[in-house]
Design a protein that fits this description.
seven-stranded mixed sheet, alpha/beta, Nucleotidyltransferase, domain 5, Rossmann fold, single chain, 15% strand, 17 helices, 2 domains
């Protein structure tokens, strides 16, 4: 009797184990969590796993994953996903490509180790004599081949293809010759090894605006536009109200080593990372928005040279400038700064973000109260006379909420009317930057990035450039004069340079109060 009970108990345990093994095959994150206690699921990884699972159902045939470095994407997509795939389809062959053979081999070796340790649960075993790290097989005929960019992949028809970081670093991504070589390898070698209907997953951090991801999207298109590629882009700080994770604009991406409910720790991590790298790299690698530098208003070298965080000058006149949201754009530029005792403009604050009219008015008032600004310059094209009312209303509300001391006088509101295009407004201020009359007194990476990447003629309208231009026209004095420029007239660098006194001799509008 006891033996029969033991037998039934063992049978139930065996059935439960088989069911658990089967359930683990739902998606790559589930199998990772099932087998590795060190794997910490996070919302972005679970979302990725669901998208990766669609490769097996055929719902997606081309998947592009773009996330910041060290966010867990490569381990999930280039190690756990191939193992999960082979556990479900032991006869299939997987090819893994990367910028270098060593990285590709590292991924292939990690998958082998998983099969050695856990493959028995799904009758998955390495074939006898399959000792090569770069090309190995299972007993059922499946296997993994690992190749670097430029490596040969002939004779290996793949049922699943994974590309993990096709560009090694900034230097290689900036090289047109190397980008062309990566593209040629992808198009002529890698893609020709896919079996009919085989899906492809590519994951990367976008170093360059013309990288492999850009080129495949240009050629094949996005799913939502009738193309092939399903694109998942999760920046360090959310930039869209339609964020895939449901984050509000400005909310941080979870981190694999930070508790999922500790949002402030995640925010602090990404903020610290932003302070440690150049603005261009932050925008590209972490915010997933690489921009071309050629033809921009200012170079990164000039912007870095003009950082003076401890200038030792006395503020003579403090102001806040606003480029309101509107006109089909939901980002409001809010920038603060002061005219120093050395007659240079120092930019100190950038509170630009996606805001409604009520929100940008409050942001401008709070910044004015914080800095003691005597004037708020507001571009009035979108709101006309309402910009003054918006600021006054916000100031009154903030004082009633005790966010601003009741006795603090409101700043003077000076509307600015932009009569000409952004390039004509911005070029004279870019000249002042080059001539050491504009400096940054704090680390303002997003503001620097807009100046270093925005192209004259672009349809984009970054609010930080306009707001800092209005601030410069409102505070910066032309050389050898006592007037304060406060209304942009719109004159190009060439036109300004042609004047006997340069920008200082050009009449740019009425003077401020």
């Amino acid at each position: 009797m006891a033996d029969a009970l033991d037998h039934r108990a063992l049978a139930r345990l065996a059935q439960a184990a088989r069911q658990a093994n089967q359930d683990a095959l739902n998606d790559p994150a589930t199998i990772a969590r099932y087998l590795d206690a060190r794997f910490f699921p996070r919302p972005h990884l679970e979302y990725m796993a669901l998208e990766l699972a669609r490769l097996a159902t055929g719902e997606t045939t081309r998947l592009l994953l773009m996330l910041p470095p060290q966010s867990g994407k490569s381990t999930l997509a280039a190690v756990w996903t191939p193992f999960w795939w082979l556990a479900r389809r032991p006869h299939d062959r997987v090819i893994i490509g990367s910028y270098g053979q060593q990285l590709a081999m590292h991924r292939g070796r990690a998958i082998r180790r998983l099969i050695d340790a856990h493959g028995w649960r799904w009758n998955l075993k390495l074939a006898a004599g399959s000792t090569m790290v770069t090309d190995w097989q299972t007993e059922t005929g499946g296997g993994v081949k690992s190749v670097g960019v430029g490596g040969g992949v002939t004779g290996f028809p793949a049922n699943l293809a994974v590309i993990d970081d096709p560009h090694k670093n900034r230097a290689e991504a900036d090289s047109r010759a190397i980008r062309d070589r990566v593209w040629s390898w992808y198009s002529a070698d890698f893609m020709t090894r896919l079996s009919p209907g085989a899906p492809l997953c590519m994951m990367l951090t976008p170093w360059h605006w013309d990288d492999l991801a850009h080129r495949v999207l240009e050629r094949d298109g996005r799913q939502e536009e009738g193309g092939l590629w399903r694109v998942i882009a999760l920046p360090a700080f959310a930039t869209s109200p339609h964020d895939a994770l449901g984050r509000a604009v400005g909310d941080p991406l979870p981190h694999p080593q930070i508790p999922v409910d500790d949002i402030e720790a995640a925010r602090a991590h990404w903020t610290a990372r932003r302070a440690q790298i150049e603005a261009r790299d932050w925008a590209a690698l972490y915010q997933l928005d690489p921009q071309p530098l050629e033809g921009a208003l200012l170079s990164t070298d000039i912007l870095q040279r003009q950082r003076h965080f401890d200038a030792g000058v006395t503020p003579q006149r403090i102001a806040v400038a606003v480029d309101p949201s509107g006109g089909g754009r939901d980002t409001a530029g809010v920038v603060g700064g002061y005219l120093g005792s050395d007659q240079r403009l120092y930019l100190t604050h950038d509170h630009t973000k996606a805001m409604s009219s009520a929100e940008w008015a409050r942001a401008a008032c709070l910044l004015a109260a914080e800095t003691g600004a005597q004037i708020v310059l507001v571009e009035r094209n979108y709101g006309g006379d309402m910009v003054d009312l918006a600021i006054r209303t916000a100031w009154d509300a903030l004082q009633r909420e005790n966010a601003i001391p009741s006795g603090q006088l409101p700043p003077y509101v000076q509307p600015v009317h932009a009569k000409v295009g952004k390039a004509l407004r911005a070029e004279p201020i870019a000249q002042q930057w080059r001539e050491d009359r504009v400096r940054t007194a704090a680390y303002l990476p997003e503001l620097e990035m807009e100046w270093a990447t925005w192209q004259p003629g672009s349809s984009e309208s970054p609010g930080r450039i306009d707001a800092s231009v209005y601030l410069a026209y409102g505070l910066l004095r032309p050389p050898n004069t006592a007037q304060v420029i406060s209304s942009p007239a719109g004159i190009s660098l060439a036109q300004a340079s042609a004047q006997p006194g340069g920008l200082g001799s050009v009449r740019l509008g009425r003077t401020g109060p």
